[in-house]
Amino acid sequence: MKHSLIALALITFAPLSALAQSKPADDITAQAEQIFRGSFREDNPSYWMQRLDQDETMRLCSQFKDHPPTKVRQKIEKAEMASIRYPVDGKLIGDWKEGEKLAAVGTGGHIGFIQPDPPGRVRGGNCYACHQLAEKEVAYGTIGPSLQHFGKLRGNTEQIIKYTYDKIYNSNAFNACTNMPRFGLHNWLTPEQITHIVAFLVDPESPVNKD
Amino acid sequence: MSTRLPAVLAAVGFGLAGTAIAQGSTMDEIAKYREMLADGNPAELLELKGESLWKTPRGPKNASLEQCDMGLGPGKLDGAYAQLPRYFADTRKVMDVESRLVHCMVSLQGFQYEDVTRQWFSRPGKESEIEALVTYIGGKSNGMKIDVPARHPEEARMAKVGEYIFYRRSGPQDFSCAICHGQDDKRIRLQDLGNLTTQAGAGMAMSTWPSYRVSQGAVWTMQRRLIDCMRQARWPEPKYLSDSVIALQVYLQKTASGTVMQTPGIKR
C-alpha cells in the first residue's frame, strides 16, 4: 500500500520536480527543514515519521504559502487530476446514509504518546470541521464554504456526481493548495466510502438537500 | 469551584462531538461561563503554588530559583515572559520560558533534566511543577507588552524557521498551521480560530497563555498547546522543548509584539 502510494507520487510528480529544481532551496529552508525534522521524539516509529515527508504538491504549496503562481498552480492541478482512481464497478454514487455517518466522524489518524486515537478507531471525512452540511448539525466549521443544499443547488447530473467524487478524492485537482485535504490520494477514505459521501451531498433524499 | 466545573461543562456540551444545542445558545453558555469565572480563574491557585516553588530552596543544591536569569538578569521576573523567547549568551541558544526554566532548575538547583521534565504537563492526580512555575512567571508580565523584535541574528533565524514551519504542509490531511490559523474569522466545528499571521490575531492568542483550559480542567503552557496542535495536524509527537516549538513561538511572539499580556487566560 505504502509503496504503491509512493510510486504513484513519483510518477505523478515527475514533471513538477523539474520545475522545482530550477529554483535552488535557499539557505534558511534547508536549515529550517533540518531543525523541524530533528524536533520529534526518537521513539516515534518510522511509519509515523513518514508523515512528515512531503510530496511535490505539499512542498510547492509550503514554498508559496498556499498561493502558487499560475504556472505552478496549473502543473499541480494537472498532476493531481491524474492521480484520481475510481471504484472497480465504476459507480460513483453510493448510500447517503453511510455518507452521513462518514461526514460526521472527526476522529482517526491522531498519533503520538500523549493522546493518540485508540487502534482501530474509525476514520471519517470530518467534513463538518470545515463545512456546513445537513441543517440539523449546528456544530460546523467555516474554513470551507457551506455545502448545505449542495445537490439542490447544483443538481445531480452525471457531471456533478463526477465532480463531487473527484473533488473529495483530490481537492487539489481543482484548486492547488486548497485547505481541503486530499482524502482519496492519501487513502484516508476508500473510493467506496467517497461514493457514499457523494450520495450524502447530491441525493435529493439526503438531509443535506431535503431539510 | 472544582465541583461546579463538570456540571457547567456538560451543560455547555464542550468538545468536538456535534451537539443539538442551537448555536447561538452554545455561544451564550460559553459567555456566561466566562463571566462566572471572571472573578476566580482556577489557574490563580497554581500561580501561588508557582511562587512558592520559585522561592523555596530545593533540589540537590538546596537553592531557590530566585537567581534564575529569565533574560532580564538574575531574579528579574517582571516583564521577562513578555520578552521570551530570546537568545541567551550562556547557553548560546534561543530559549523560551520553559526551556530557560528547566535550564535554571538543572543548573541552579542541581536537578536531573529527566526528573524535572518527566511531569512537564499535569495529568489527573499528577500535578506539574513546570505548569505552576510558568503560570507564576507569566503573571509577572501582566499589563506589559509582548516585545520580541527578534533582532539578534539567532532570534531572527528562529523567527524565519518558525514561519517556515507555520506554512509547512505534510501528513495524511495535508495540514499546516496556516490551514487552521491563516485566515480571519474562521472556526473549526464551533471553536474560533484566530488568524495567527496578523498582530491582532497572534496578539489575542499569545497574550493569554499560559491558560486554564476548561475542557481539560488544567492549565496549559504554550509548549503543551503547540504540541497538541501538531497532534491535531496528525503529525508525530515533537520532543518537549524542541527547537521547532521554540521557533514557532519566536515567530508568533514577534507577530504579536505590542499586545498587552493578560495571563493566566481561560480557554475552552
Describe the structure in your own words.
The complex is a heterodimer of chains A (211) and B (268). Chain A is mostly helical and 211 residues long. Chain A has two domains: 2-82, no CATH class; 96-209, Orthogonal Bundle (Cytochrome Bc1 Complex, Chain D, domain 2). In chain A, 46% of the residues lie in helices and 0% in strands. Chain A is built from ten helices and no strands. Chain A has helices spanning 2-21, 27-37, 46-49, 56-63, 70-81, 96-104, 150-154, 158-169, 191-202, 207-210. The longest helix of chain A has 20 residues, at 2-21. Mean pLDDT of chain A is 90; it is low at 1-24. With 268 residues, chain B is mainly alpha-helical. Chain B has one domain (25-267): Cytochrome c-like domain (Cytochrome Bc1 Complex, Chain D, domain 2, Orthogonal Bundle). A three-stranded mixed sheet of chain B has the order 6-5-7. Chain B has a two-stranded antiparallel ribbon with strand order 1-2. Chain B is globular. The relative contact order of chain B is 0.15. Mean pLDDT of chain B is 89; it is low at 1-25. The interface between A and B is large, with 50 and 53 residues.
Keywords:
heterodimer; A: 211 residues; mainly alpha; Cytochrome Bc1 Complex, Chain D, domain 2; 10 helices; globular; B: 268 residues; three-stranded mixed beta sheet; two-stranded antiparallel sheet; 7 strands
Brief overview:
Chain A is mainly α and 211 residues long.
Largest sheet of chain A: none
Radius of gyration of chain B, taken over Cα atoms and rounded to an integer in Å: 18 Å
Number of domains of chain B: 1
Shape of chain B: globular
End-to-end separation of chain B in angstroms reads 17 Å
Question: How many DSSP-defined strands of chain B?
Answer: 7
CATH class of the largest domain in chain A: Mainly Alpha
Q: Which sequence of SSEs, written as H and E, runs from N to C of chain A?
A: HHHHHHHHHH
